[in-house]
Design goal:
194 residues; Rossmann fold; 6-stranded mixed beta sheet; two-stranded antiparallel ribbon; globular
C-alpha cells in the first residue's frame, strides 16, 4: 500500500472538517466545531486498482493559525483547497493559502480546487473560480462538493489520489509496482526504466 500525506486548506467555516468527516465516516454532522490548530484522519482509497492510504491533515482556517501551517505542509504530496460557494471572501482567501503552500520547500506537487456547500445557493461567480484555477495551475477539475448530501466527496479524494500518482510515481512495466518518478531503476525489482 502506498501512503501519501495530504493537507486540506481554506478559510474558516468553508467546510473542510465536514468534508473530511463525511469522507472518513460517511456521516454529516450539522454542528461541527471549528478546528483548533490541526486535526488528522486516515482513510484508504483505491485509485485505478492501486490501494492508497491518505493521511489527511485538516488545518484551521483562522488567520492566527497560519504561522503553523508551513510546518504541516512540508512533505505533503497533495492539497485539497476549498472555498465556500456562498461566500466570495472564502474564494479571495485562497490566494493567501496558495502563497503559503507555494512558499514551503517540498510543497505539494498536486493541488485540487474544491467547491464546498454546493447544496446551498451559489453567490460566487464561476468565471472568478476559473480564473484562480487556471492562474494557479490546479490539477484535475474544479469539483463541486456537499458534505451534507455527500455529493462528490469520495470523488474529490479519488481525484486527489489519482493526480498525486500521476505527478509523483510511475508504474514499473516489469513488476507493476509504483515507485518515485525521479528514480531511474524500479526500487522493487531493479529494472531500468525509461
Amino acid at each position: 500500500m502506498i501512503k501519501f500525506k495530504v493537507v486540506v486548506a481554506g478559510a474558516k467555516n468553508v467546510g473542510k472538517t465536514s468534508l473530511i468527516r463525511r469522507y472518513a465516516t460517511g456521516k454529516f454532522e450539522k454542528s461541527t466545531l471549528s478546528t483548533i490548530g490541526v486535526d488528522f484522519e486516515t482513510k484508504k482509497v483505491i485509485v485505478d486498482e492501486t490501494e492508497i492510504l491518505l493521511n489527511i491533515w485538516d488545518f484551521a482556517g483562522e488567520k492566527k493559525f497560519r504561522l503553523l501551517f508551513p510546518s504541516y505542509v512540508s512533505g505533503a504530496s497533495g492539497a485539497l483547497m476549498l472555498y465556500d460557494v456562498t461566500n466570495e471572501d472564502s474564494l479571495n482567501d485562497l490566494y493567501d493559502w496558495i502563497n503559503v503552500i507555494s512558499s514551503v520547500p517540498n510543497s505539494p506537487k498536486t493541488k485540487i480546487l474544491i467547491e464546498a456547500k454546493t447544496d446551498l445557493k451559489r453567490k460566487v461567480k464561476k468565471e472568478d473560480v476559473m480564473n484562480i484555477f487556471e492562474k494557479h495551475k490546479f490539477q484535475g477539475e474544479i469539483l463541486s462538493t456537499s458534505a451534507k448530501t455527500g455529493e462528490n466527496v469520495e470523488k474529490a479524494f479519488e481525484m486527489l489520489g489519482r493526480e498525486i500518482l500521476k505527478k509523483s510515481l510511475k508504474k514499473c512495466p516489469n513488476c507493476g509496482k509504483h515507485y518515485p518518478l525521479e528514480l531511474k531503476f524500479c526500487q522493487y525489482c531493479g529494472s531500468k526504466t525509461n
